Hints:
The chain has 58 residues and is mostly helical. The protein is built from four helices and no strands. It has one domain (1-58). It has helices at 5-14, 17-22, 27-31, 34-43.
Amino acid sequence: MPLHPICHRAIHASLTNAQLAKMAPNAEALLAVEEVGRFVRWVSGKPPDFHAPTRTRR
């Protein structure tokens, strides 16, 4: 599944690779993660070429 780089970074800022490996391989599972869903709702109003710094996992 093609994924915009900013979305890819946001997913990895919210979830570890181990967490991702345990998830169902679909968009609905990712959107159910509160941080990811909130990010997607926010970025959905931006232009396709939008880029912004992504918060790193603490």
